[in-house]
Write a structure and sequence with these properties.
Order of helices and strands: HHHHHHHEEEEEEEEE
CATH class of the largest domain: Mainly Beta
Oligomer: single chain
Largest sheet: 9 strands, mixed
Strand order of the largest sheet: 2-1-3-4-9-5-6-7-8
Number of strands: 9
CATH superfamily of the largest domain: Umud Fragment, subunit A
CATH architecture of the largest domain: Ribbon
Number of helices: 7
Helix content: 25-40%
Distance between the termini: 26 Å
CATH topology of the largest domain: Umud Fragment, subunit A
Radius of gyration: 24 Å
């Protein structure tokens, strides 16, 4: 991300549009738009000062953007997988809310639980009517939800945590899956490498579950993160 893209995104995040921002700081819209298109280094200092003052940053931060913390974060974040990018975003949003004294009130939802999946020795999913339980957080789009039993997937999934699942029998290497392994339901990480396929626990005190002709295995779905 270069400084002009960063500047435009910052303006839109704080003011909604470049035009409205220009009106608020008393700089012509065409001038602000030209700075975003042609570059900060080609702009008059007085305009840069007004833009930075309106955004609550210093001209030095803008000119030295390539060496700034936000630039370094962006360069690393784009190299992360989607799961880790989501964690970075959630942490950043939390810091922003704390800084601005924004309190997120929990949403009171209910979730249908279709039994338990083991993070250890195996469980059985419900065949009958699901259990409706309260869930005080945002519920992501999903096909079914289950409860984790055990500690083999800590720290990512804790004992008694509700997790949400998208039904599929197609899975990518490294995804967290809900699998039927020898007629018992597990939550595990699916791995495929030179050693073959297996279901992996994050807690190293638990052994991997090999996927081969000696065991029956099918995928219920992947965990929604």
């Amino acid at each position: 991300m270069n400084r002009e893209i960063y500047l435009k995104e910052l303006i839109e995040a704080k003011f909604g549009s470049v035009r409205y921002f220009a009106e608020q700081i008393g700089v012509p819209y065409t001038t602000v738009r030209s700075i975003l298109e042609r570059g900060v280094l080609n702009a008059k200092m007085e305009n840069i000062i007004n833009i930075c003052k309106g955004l609550g940053i210093t001209p030095e931060q803008l000119y030295n953007f390539e060496d700034s913390v936000i630039s370094k974060i962006n360069k690393l974040a784009v190299q992360l997988n989607e799961y880790r990018q989501e964690k970075v975003y959630n942490f950043t949003e939390q810091q922003y809310n704390e800084q601005n004294n924004i309190v997120e009130l929990p949403t009171n939802n209910e979730v249908e639980i279709y039994g338990a999946v083991s993070a250890g020795t195996g469980e059985y999913l419900l065949d009958g009517k699901p259990e409706l339980v309260p869930y005080d957080s945002e519920v992501p789009p999903h096909d079914f939800a289950v409860v984790v039993n055990g500690d083999s997937m800590e720290p990512t999934f804790e004992n008694k945590q509700i997790i949400f699942v998208k039904k599929t029998n197609e899975v990518r290497n490294g995804q967290f899956v809900i699998a039927d392994y020898d007629h018992q339901a597990y939550v595990k990480k699916f791995m495929r490498d030179e050693n073959g396929c297996r279901l992996v626990s994050l807690n190293k005190k638990y052994s991997d579950l090999p996927i081969n002709e000696e065991h029956e295995m099918s995928i219920f779905g992947v965990v929604v993160l």
